[in-house]
Write a structure and sequence with these properties.
alpha+beta, Metal Binding Protein, Guanine Nucleotide Exchange Factor, Chain A, 6-stranded antiparallel sheet, 3-stranded antiparallel sheet, 3 helices, 9 strands, globular, disordered N terminus, binds fe (iii) ion
């Protein structure tokens, strides 16, 4: 049995019929730390090698720091030497959304949480074979739930988003 940690936050109250969480910037600001808000709601990027999950080798699931949606399995994590936690695939293609990003004068693909639209990072084409994908994520956009450990309440309450 997974334990559920306590938190006053109930994102389920903010869910629409498809399971998506839609909060205003003001509401997100009230419930996220300043640094998580800056990364996930304002498309920020943490400094390389600064994040807590860069070196992590623990088994478990990385979830959305905003809404608890499952995003990446530790089994898909690899050492990219970029300074950001890197994965070769999301836990499910339904759980993330990709969007063209022309910011900074670069052509990149932004990766967002499919449930709450949190900015997570970008995906590049220089990952390991066979898919050659590198999901370059911000540690601050992620929470970690260790295998057989305590799961976050956000994660326990997160329901899958309906496919369109
Ligand atoms: Fe999310």
């Amino acid at each position: 049995m997974e334990k559920i940690s306590s938190s006053p936050l109930r994102l389920t109250d903010k869910e629409n019929a498809s399971g998506r969480v839609e909060l205003s910037k003001k509401e997100w600001k009230a419930i996220l730390s300043d640094e998580v808000f800056r990364i996930t709601r304002e498309k920020g990027t943490e400094k390389p090698f600064s994040g807590k999950y860069v070196e992590s080798r623990q088994r478990g699931v990385y979830t959305c720091a905003c809404c608890g949606n499952d995003l990446f399995s530790s089994a898909a994590k690899f050492e990219s030497r970029t300074g950001w936690p890197s994965f070769y695939a999301p836990i499910s293609e339904q759980n993330v959304r990709e969007k063209l990003d022309l910011g900074l004068g670069l052509l990149r693909t932004e990766v967002l949480c499919a449930r709450c639209d949190a900015h997570l990072g970008h995906v590049f084409n220089d990952g390991p074979e066979p898919a050659s994908l590198r999901y370059c994520m911000n540690s601050l956009a992620l929470d970690f739930c260790p295998a057989n450990g305590e799961t976050s309440r956000k994660r326990a309450e997160a329901k899958p988003v309906e496919m369109k």
